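User: I'm putting together a small comparison set for a docking exercise, and I want a reference complex before I start. The sequence is below, and the ligand is AN7. Could you produce the 3D structure with the ligand included, as structure tokens?
Assistant: Of course. I'll restate your input first, then give the structure tokens for the complex.
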Amino acid sequence: MVKQGILSRYRDLLPVTANTPLFSLGEGDTPLTRSPQLENKIGCGSLYYKLEGCNPTGSFKDRGMVVAIAKALEEDNRAVICASTGNTSASAAAYAASSALDAIIVIPEGKIALGKLAQAIVHGARIIAIDGNFDLALKIVRSLSQKHQVTLVNSLNPNRIEGQKTASFEVVDEMGTAPDYLFIPVGNAGNITAYWKGFVEYYQLGKIKQKPKMMGFQAEGAAPIVRGHVVDNPETVATAIRIGNPASWQRAIAARDESGGVIDMVSDEDILEAYSLLASKEGIFCEPASAASVAGLLKLTRRGMDLSAKSVVCVLTGSGLKDVDTATRKTPSFTVLPANLADIEKAIGWD
Ligand code: AN7
């Protein structure tokens, strides 16, 4: 069977009209898997991962992008623009290419993971790397989109949030209920906003009896919401969430407060620990920003949070293959030997 995509599957709950093209590159319907080891280790009732790295361009951005691009086509706009820490631009480039739209992307020079840049290049986007961070890039593309005939496809575009909310629908459709807690990384804060919107809508439709607590995690060096002020020079190993002035700041706070959740921060060390643990114990290769959700879970449980009777979903937002530099930086990661049986057996300890 041809994969349906979120526009068709959730059309009744999306801004779909008779003129919206219902196309798909295969986004959505991502795996919800149960933790093989960590669940027991932290004494959690049940722990699930929503594997958003399994989307066509390797991140959750595809859910929102397919809606944003479909609406641009419906309105007969032929070009899209975005600022990005990497994943939005990769997704915009792919979806624009598939619909013969021009994609213009503005990125912070030297601060996006190479896999994401590779995607923008192969999909034929016009790439502008600026001497400035994501926040400045976003300011620039906002101005450009007001001045020129081009659709802004950052999460300021409400169609992006609409598409991304389908991830909560899937979590509920799969579990038959909402989890008690949803742990999620926070950068520009569009995704936490979207998940919350999805849960609220399902609640209003009577599909769930209670909504989850939203547990958002920023990186310590890029934690404006936690600190309560704009961070001028955000820094973190998790380049995807290297953001100092999130566009959906207020909506993230609303999601936190209305759900009774928290927005907290995790250090780069915490992020890399969770990143390695996910890879080496759970068999999941996600990118560093994604590991912020699990780093947050580890932080809170170490501080005594009791989840023994609770269900938890951690959103793993993007694939580890996006950022192989972080994975291969660890030394020594392998042994170089002559191609000879005896030497190799010796190195493995089989001599
Ligand atoms: C893997 O691509 O902002 O809080 O420009 O790529 O909705 O911003 C990416 C963000 C988490 C944070 N995990 O989500 C961009 C961009 C990954 C990400 C986030 C991003 P938001």
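The chain has a mean pLDDT of 97. The CA atoms of residues 101 and 247 lie 25 Å apart.
User: Thanks, that's exactly what I needed.
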